[in-house]
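C-alpha cells help. Our protein:
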Amino acid sequence: MKRHVHVTAVALTVLAASAMARSAAAAVYTFEGLSAGTLAGQDNWAKSGPTYNGGLVTTGAGVNGTKVAAGSSETNSATETAVGRVNDGNWSYPLDFNDTSYALQVDTRYGGSTYWTFGYDANSNGSIAYGSGEIAGLLFVGSSVIGANVTGAWTFDSSLPATTNAGDWLRVAWVTDWTTGTYGTMSVYMKNLTDGETDFQPIAGLQGLDINGLDWGTWRANATGDASKAGLFNLVDNADAFATFGLNFNNTQFDNITVGHFVLPEPASLSLLGIGGVLLLRRRRS
C-alpha cells in the first residue's frame, strides 16, 4: 500500500501585519488519513512501552467533528495512554534552533490531563519511550491548570478563564525563543475554539520560562545531531480524564498538532499571530 503526501499551502489569519518580522512555515499533523481504531501501529505512531495504552482514532466531539486522537483503555492494567511518533518521510517537522519563535501547538478537548512534548528515538527502536531520557520536558493541559516542566520543575498557572468548560476545544501554543539564555526560554498561549476566540492570550504565569539543560538541552543536542530521530510524544492520564469531569478517556481528544515557526506579536499586543504560511501535510493512502 503506497502513501502519498499532498502539500497544501494554507494561509492563516494575520492579526497585525505590521508586527510580523517575517512569514514562516510549520508542519501540521491531522488524523484524517488514519483509520478508526487504535492509534499505535498507524502512520508511525507507537506505544511508549508495553504497559501503556495505544490511543484511539475516533470522530471528534463538539466544534471539531473531524477525525481526532484520544486516550484509550485497551490494556486493563494501564491507567495512561502514552504514544510517540518518530519523524519519517510521510510527515516530519522542521528544526531550527536559531529561531526566535519556534512552537509546539495542539488542539485539545478540555476534560482531563494530557501531556505533550518533543521526543527522540535514541535507541532507534521506532518508538519514543516515556521517562527514559527520550523526551524533553513535559507540557501539560490539566483539569484546571496549564503547566510546563521546562525549568527542571513544574510551573503551573490556574488562571483559565471562568468560561472554560469541560468539552471545550482549546488551542494551546508553547512558543520557544531558542536564542535567549543557554537553552532558550518558553512562553505559553491559549485560545478557546469552542467560544469562537480568534486571538491567543498569554498564560500569565508561564511567560519567559528558562529552559533547563537536562531534558530540553539533551533533546536539542540529539535532534541537532540527527533530526530524523526527532518526533512527538503524548500522554493522556486516563484516570484523571474521567475522574475529574465525569468523562471517559475518549473525551480527552487532541488534533491539529502544529510544529515549527510562529511569528510573535509586538510586546504591546496580547494576541499571538497566526502563521503566515502553513504547510498542511495531509496523508492519503491508496
Remarks:
- The first strand starts at residue 3 and ends at 10.
- Residues 213-225 form the longest helix (13 residues).
- DSSP finds two helices and 19 strands in the chain.
- The chain has one domain: 3-29+85-234+255-285.
